[in-house]
Structure formats: structure tokens, C-alpha cells
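Worked example 2:
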Amino acid sequence: MAKNLKVLLIEDNLIEIMKMKRTISLLKLEHTMQEAKNGEEALKILEDKSNFPDIILLDLNMPKMSGIEFLTIIKNSDEFKHIPIIILTTSDNQKDLFECYRIGISGYVLKPLKYDDYVKKIESVLNYWSTNELKRI
């Protein structure tokens, strides 16, 4: 049975945040979403242990702290390393892809240009993680 997810979206682009919200609404999903505009803001959100996300959707190219820097911090932390992190980016740089998998991501999704394709990808990602047997710690 699918469950509602707590999603943490780490994205600095307001249009991308709005696109994600629109997609979740369009798909009539009841997931809750928190937003952080950069890695530092996300780390502050994660300090609230009572509100751990089920998954993190992470952009790579952000100000203050890159997605890879944030990913490294999370995956080196016993407290947070269990949280699945899916990279959601426009970067098809193979070096980034390999580095992210080496650090420990759960998935790497390229943002398509067409909105319909974006909706299909986000639907697939959220459907998978809402039926996956996630264990909240």
C-alpha cells in the first residue's frame, strides 16, 4: 500500500520549486513537501528530528553549498545517512553522476525540458518511494 511521503526538496530555483508543487498537485498526491533553497538551509531543517523526511530530492548546482557537498555531509552522518537522496538535476556530467553514486545516492534523475516528461519522471520517482519499505528511524 502506498504511503504519503515527507519530501525535502533542496532547490534554489523558484521556478523549479513551483514546477514540483504543480506536479504534485496535478498528480493529486498527498505527499508533504518542505523546501530548502540550499544545503545550509536543508541542514537546519534536518535538525528537527521529529520531522525527518522520507526522501530528499536534491539539485546539484546551488549557491553556498553544492549538492555534492551537502550529499557528502549527509552520507557521512550516522544520523542522516539512511535517508534516500535522489539527485534531480539538469547536469548530465558523467563525473557528477559517478561521484554522486560513489557517495551514496539512491537515484539520479535528469530534469527533462518538456513538462509532460517531467511529470512522468516525478510520478515514477514518488510512486516508487511511496511503495518502498522505508523505515523511519
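The chain has a mean pLDDT of 92. The domain at 6-130 is CATH 3.40.50.2300 (Rossmann fold).
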